[in-house]
Amino acid sequence: MLLYRRLLLAATLLAVLVIGLGAYVRLSDAGLGCPDWPGCYGHWLGVPEAAHEQLAASQAFPQQAIDTGKAWKEMIHRYCAGTLGLLILALCLLSWRAEFRQRQSPALPTLLLGIVGLQAALGMWTVTLQLKPLIVTLHLLGGMTTLALLVALLLRSQAGAARPPTTAALRLSAALALAVVVGQIALGGWVSSNYAALACPDFPQCQGQWQPTMDFGQAFSLHRELGQSVDGNQISSAALTAIHWSHRLGALAVLLAVGALGAVLVKTGCRQWQVWAALLYGLLGLQIGLGIANVQWSLPLALAVGHNLGAACLLTAVLTINLRCQPSRAADPAPKNDLLLNTGSSRG
């Protein structure tokens, strides 16, 4: 179990890094730095940098201008994601060992491995379908799902630990906050994948108005290409405004739902829950501050990546509260050999 827990912790930390790198690649317009998949201009290791390599790459991909900087960003992200996939494969294999299955079901690690396989396919389609917004958004959600399942496994590996008291109101508030945060992450992914982050360049108003011109029908048409409407024309500014404005409304919903959860945690009078409430309020304030700063300062790369990582942290915190609200599991049963030894010693 010690090896399993170490691998699990390493995979969780790497998942956070992969989410951050994915945001960095997307926001620095390096998502198509490599026009093929899984290699880069046919290279499995590295990118074409020598003159003869670039000549061969330009002949193989004449429609693609070679930018080694963007290519390296994309490949570093792929290498980290591939390493994460190998760690999760190792976790899944360990979970199916007989001594492990006596303690925990391998269902969740197996599901996680399936999610990683789907993530790999989405990563490929992101390139082959030329950053189609639906695929890019699903890829982001897949990364967040991977992190969430790893966090759930981490908490499950600590089964038997004492948990703070809970109430029906706390469980309901936590579940509502989780649903709202997940919805907001999906909206944030839709904003990013449609490059609508600066559709409203001011705050708190949008384009100097409280009700700017918006086209929600075109904004949330899922089956369309990047920068285009369903009929193939250029997507309108009204549609981009609707996407951005929806994300702001989602932020308000998160403020209310997570704020209410924090209030319920404080009201319990439990010291552990009050610490979680302080953490929630800190993450919530940071996320709102980063969102406003991104608009006010025209989306600086560092703040935009930080906003993505902040969403991952807020999701992790709210998910952990939800899981800690569940009835505690019994401690892991001792292995059969240990039981026999204990029985023998008691007879002696």
Automatic annotation (TrEMBL):
GO CC, sorted alphabetically, is: membrane
What membrane topology does the annotation report for this chain? Answer: Multi-pass membrane protein
Provide the protein's localization.
Membrane
Asked whether the keyword DNA-binding is assigned, the reply is no
Q: Which GO terms describe its molecular function?
A: metal ion binding; oxidoreductase activity
Q: Does the keyword Transmembrane helix apply?
A: yes
Sorted alphabetically, the keyword list is: Cell membrane, Disulfide bond, Heme biosynthesis, Iron, Membrane, Metal-binding, Oxidoreductase, Transmembrane, Transmembrane helix
Quick one: which pathway? Porphyrin-containing compound metabolism
Region named Disordered: 329-348
Q: Protein name, please? A: Cytochrome C oxidase subunit I
